[in-house]
Write a structure and sequence with these properties.
The chain has about 350 residues and is of the alpha/beta class. Helices cover about 25% and strands about 30% of the residues.
Length: about 350
């Protein structure tokens, strides 16, 4: 029976994954917990997860995946910024660590499934036999955007017990069971940069960046920048120059080391291309589909047409101009509440 399976819960130290373990125990699963030790900033999270495991009376493991984390997440994060793009480390961490190394380790230890505290619902399409993900009932907490890259094999062996719940319900359960993290605030920043200062993190790893010209889209020079890693597409404030009308960062010209500013209309795009595309609904997208797409986490998705270009690349044509599209971010496709797939914006 399903509830006799052995499940290893990926316990982040937060309240969602802790309640995830509690719910699985109540359903009769054989449950253990494990935390990934990824970087020094995670020490308190490991301690919180261990405390919860002890409270629930379940076995607890710590997996040192710091090497994999450096390769697939932090090094990639730094290099993507240096290349002028904007990375999404949560997508990379889920793809390579939580549903990659963690799942492999769990299976090696004899577990049938892993479980996480993600706000998503897994559903099997009886017509195709494929696993799909549906958005959380609490749209503000929905995390399908960062899970678009999961394979059918990864989805088959994963459980998401809190996907239909609200945050208030989860905190209530944690409080009733005296879990140490019942009132622990949600993490708002990238876990390995807790102060949110990405530029300082990159500079500490690579050294000071070379400054260059700040120009308008017309080519007119307005000033000098401190290094392109300090800026992001769509940024208006803190650029260090003034102009007669509102202007925004519209491009980071890596080749010429120029920061390009423009009026709001210059931020609008009607089309983009994406690579490394993964579709949950099919092994390969063979014909255009109409759906909706978003290019940032928790952004309102917009109607579009996705056209396959071959070699896991697609073109996305929006019905209305789309604002502040960033290279390196994910474009994620939906059919109503169902996640179709996604890829990396080129």
């Amino acid at each position: 029976m399903e509830n006799k399976l052995k499940v290893l819960v990926a316990m982040s130290g937060g309240v969602d994954s802790s309640v995830c373990a509690k719910l699985l125990l109540e359903k009769g699963y054989e449950v253990a917990g494990a935390t990934m030790s990824l970087c020094p900033e995670h020490e308190q999270d490991v301690a919180d997860a261990r405390s919860v495991a002890q409270k629930l009376g379940i076995p607890f493991y710590v997996f040192d995946f710091s090497g994999e984390f450096k390769t697939h997440v932090t090094d990639h994060f730094v290099q993507t910024y240096l290349d002028g793009s904007t990375p999404n480390p949560c997508v990379d961490c889920n793809r390579w660590l939580k549903f990659g190394s963690f799942l492999e380790k769990a299976q090696h230890l004899g577990f049938d499934r892993i479980a996480t505290g993600h706000y998503v619902t897994k559903i099997k399409d009886e017509n195709t036999g494929r696993w799909l993900l549906r958005r959380s009932a609490d749209r503000k907490k929905d995390q399908t955007y960062v899970l678009y890259s999961l394979s059918q094999q990864q989805l088959e062996h994963s459980l998401f017990p809190v996907g239909e719940m609200s945050k208030d319900d989860i905190r209530t359960i944690a409080g009733e069971n005296s879990l140490v993290n019942a009132d622990k605030p949600d993490s708002q920043d990238i876990c390995f940069i807790p102060d949110g200062n990405y530029a300082s993190y990159i500079t500490a790893r690579t050294g000071e960046q070379q400054g260059g010209d700040i120009v308008l889209t017309t080519g007119e020079k307005l000033g000098t920048h401190r290094g392109l890693i300090h800026y992001t597409i769509g940024q208006r404030r803190g650029v260090g120059v003034s102009y007669s009308e509102p202007i925004f960062v519209v491009e980071k010209d890596i080749q010429n080391n120029r920061l390009v500013l423009g009026t709001p209309d210059k931020l609008l795009r009607t089309t983009l291309t994406a690579c490394d595309v993964n579709m949950l609904t099919t092994d390969e997208l063979n014909s255009p589909i109409k759906c909706t797409a978003c290019t940032r986490y928790h952004q309102q998705d917009m109607p579009c047409t996705v056209t396959p270009l071959g070699e896991k690349r697609v073109r996305v044509d929006f019905e209305q101009p789309h604002k502040a599209v960033c290279k390196g971010q994910a474009v994620v496709f939906y059919d109503g509440d169902y996640l179709l797939g996604g890829g990396t914006i080129e």
